[in-house]
Amino acid sequence: MWFADSKGLEIIKGEAQVDDVQSKLEGWSSEQRPHCAWLCIQADSARILGEADEPDEAKRLRGTEGELGRVLSRAGIPVIVVITQADINGPELEAMRNRCQRVFDFPHHVVPICAEPRTGNGRILIPAHGLDALRRLTLATLPAPLAEKTERGWVT
Question: Which fold has domain 32-153?
Answer without folding.
Answer: Rossmann fold (3.40.50)
